[in-house]
């Protein structure tokens, strides 16, 4: 199969290269993104799931997939080629793909640096930030990159409390110091920590997040507006998630699960215009590996109080759902930086459960904003229309 005849094709020698620095670079999502980028570039697979490969983005001057150079931080020591083989054995990657793109996986592996803080690490927050910043700058300089986008795809951490910066915020601070656009694909605090508000506002860099919308919440962002637009009264909305892998283990911690569920609840409250009964439960099922099942039970009233039920089941491979979005976001953030955009990119809310700024939560409206953003990038990114300026990121635990 051949790749689409868009920006995934090989660039001309004059096209500059763009760095993608992945926090959690040896995880399932990062490994799938690196392997997938190589596979699409080589024409081994089509860019299924990549919104930026649609015709609407053809002239938005996004960096070609073949121009992306990968590196990152991780606290694990499993090499990317070995990680890719494990994902192929688990049905996440196609059989034979790790061998076909081994050179690209090895190249990315050479650019992965130790993350932190590790047990016994005596460095304080500023020393850790300085070390992470030096790694990112060294990567950008040695590879001769035009710019580097930092993307957090690490495991979910508990909601931050107190003044101390959690690991996700240390990496976010390093991205700011290194002069890099930043994307938080996780529910972790990142730039939302109050200690980084000033630096984020003064940094003059574009950033986006948080918590990639890949399954249950994606469906909720479509169904919530449907009930509201059809004037059907939702009485209760409950859900259960069964997942394994690293995400399942991380979300077995109630504090980490609370960070994840906050975005799911926000989408319903925003699209329905009210808070309804019901909770989301997350269960770690190691046997599922990188696959997940999400079940929703919606109780609603129809005409004359007629009681009705909608049930949905979403089954999918988390990494295969997330990886194309990570590549989309890296390209969009890089182009936004090149075009001189700064601050939170509310137009990328399409990708997130808990997006920065005050944009809509309904998927259709978010998609319209994203397509309009593609047009702005095509035209050189003129200023946003009056009244649509994005707000600064909310601090951890703050809700609208």
From TrEMBL:
Domain Myo-inositol-1-phosphate synthase GAPDH-like: 215-319
Top-level taxon of origin: Bacteria
Stretches for region Disordered: 378-400
PANTHER family: MYO-INOSITOL-1 PHOSPHATE SYNTHASE (PTHR11510)
Family of this protein: Belongs to the myo-inositol 1-phosphate synthase family.
UniProt protein name: Inositol-3-phosphate synthase
Organism per entry: Streptomyces ziwulingensis
Lineage: Bacteria, Bacillati, Actinomycetota, Actinomycetes, Kitasatosporales
